[in-house]
Amino acid sequence: MESAGEYDYVIVGAGTAGCVLANRLSRHPDIAVLLIEAGGKDDYLWIHIPVGYLYCIDNPRTDWLFRTEKDPGLAGRALLYPRGKVLGGSSSINGMIYMRGQQGDYDRWADVSGDASWRWEHVLPLFRKSEDHWLGASAIHGSGGEWRVERQCLSWEILDAFRAAASETGIPAVTDFNSGDNHGCAYFEVNQRRGIRLNAAKAFLRPASARPNLTIMTGCHVEQLLLDGEGQDVLCRGVRFSGGGRMFTATARRETLLAAGAIGSPQILQLSGIGPAPHLQGLGIVPVVDAPGVGANLQDHLQLRMVYRIAGARSLNTLASSWHGKLRIGLQYLLFQSGPMSMAPSQLGAFARSDPGQATPNLQYHVQPLSLDKFGDPLHGFPAFTASVCNLRPTARGHVRIASADSHAPPKIVPNYLSTPEDRRVAAAALALTRRIVAAPALARYRPQEFKPGPDFQTEDELAEAAGLIGTTIFHPVGTCRMGRSDDPLAVVDGALNVRGVRRLRVVDASVMPFITSGNTNSPTLMIAEKTAQAIEDAGFAAG
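Above: the chain's sequence. Below: its structure in token form.
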């Protein structure tokens, strides 16, 4: 066992949160920081071309290649469950959508954690701090930060028509989803710079990489945390990891910051003996801290992808159906960094209520001028658009549990989609709302015909069944190390994200969310890291 050295802070995972933490902490020259990443450098061409997510997901160069267990709620199907395994993490392979969620999301976090600093009025300045918004600084947006937010330089006739149809259905046209109230329909803003993906590695890590007090190690797989003590006095003193065929330890003088994501963080905790004791004992792992909440509370947004054939409008299906069409698309991007290759996976968004009883929008649409049977399949040979809708606040809870004491074995991921009556009811209502939008006058001239799931599904029960047949993840897993009060037996971390029962250890990533945000989860994760780094700085880098 070799020593990789002693540092003030050891950060596990160079995804969105890890990159932010490394940048913020290492700007203090007397603080030594080690950042460990299992994946490689973000020098793969397809990471940076927006449409390249098609070649990064389910690619061992950039993805952990996780799969869910077969899910009864999805007619027994197992799903791809992409998580970035590369500098930048999932920000290197995601949809680039800049979305904060709703004010109520953060107020609810504050209530459940007993920590008022999570309220919207306190986290809004943190979102603004890192932001560089294309419209400049305002009361809502920031300017000059590392996280560039741009509008998409594209327009599709069929998407404009969908937006008009949404307005006719009571979902107004708006210009900004990020004020705390995202009700309405608009084109998404994206984390790009002039048509090129901006991942967290470029935004936060690259500017810090030349600092002599920051060490970045890629291709290094964390096996477990180094824990001393037992009972009420457990101390994390660093990590053990492998790389290049050798085994290393790294010591953290102040804190170890676990930023491995909603799948990786609970996996590492469980491998280290922090988790549900009966499960760990069954795998031959000695429990150090009996923490039943580690790996529990998994939440995700299930997208229901409805496909409509159209006439009289172009879609990407037809534009990319010939070699000369593909050539034109390629040249447009090569020369101008614009056109379909600069597109985020979803271009138009909408937030709506599944029924009038919802206090705030509980549905999100991702609308695309294309269609395909499932991710990775070729585009359909006819013009079409996809209206994907998801329940923003699912009541189902899944879990992540290690299946082996071998740190290289993938954990078992059980989302439990559509496993509650409420989620099935909302899914049926979401599909019905989509049909009302598509039937609005603004889309009539394009003669939309439902291709998936198809008009045979009509009753609420039939629509719920259809949701299970067409539903798939939109890649937003959160909640598996959730924050909570000291009297909450399933809370893994407190409001400051310290792991309960272990000194000098925090979890800083999407896994700490007690409830999933009402929208895409990448930028909320960035804010979580920004908040934690500021708290560490404000405390004067005191050891735990």
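The domain at 153-187+302-391+417-475 is CATH 3.30.410.40 (Cholesterol Oxidase; domain 2).
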